[in-house]
Amino acid sequence: MPNDYLPYLTADWTGASGTVYRGACYMIDTPFNPVSAVYIACLPGLSDWQAFYVGETGDLRQRLNTGAKDHAGLQCAIRKGAKWLSIIREANADRRLAIETDLRRGLRPSCNQQSLGSISIFDRF
Length: 125
What we know:
By secondary structure, the chain is an alpha+beta fold. Helix content is about 25%, strand content about 30%. It has a single domain (about 10-125), classed as GIY-YIG endonuclease (3-Layer(aba) Sandwich).
């Protein structure tokens, strides 16, 4: 996974389905290898982890290292205090997307929320 790094911690994340996924946790500036995974930008709390953003990628290095500055969700998470990345390795793209969706629905991380602004349903009529 990361070059010569071992995970410091693990975190368990519960999706909307009730499935629990275990992620290996690394400092947010860890240099990653180009592996496929679901990732959660997070911060440990007193009794649990706080998730700010959930994403998936076929290449952690490109998404979280070389492409980090252009990653709006990751930058949002960092601004909100994320210091760690919880990594759930998964090579299968369909499975990664299913895990990411389950976790987004279960965790409802603030940097994944899409604002509707001040749109009213009555604006259409």
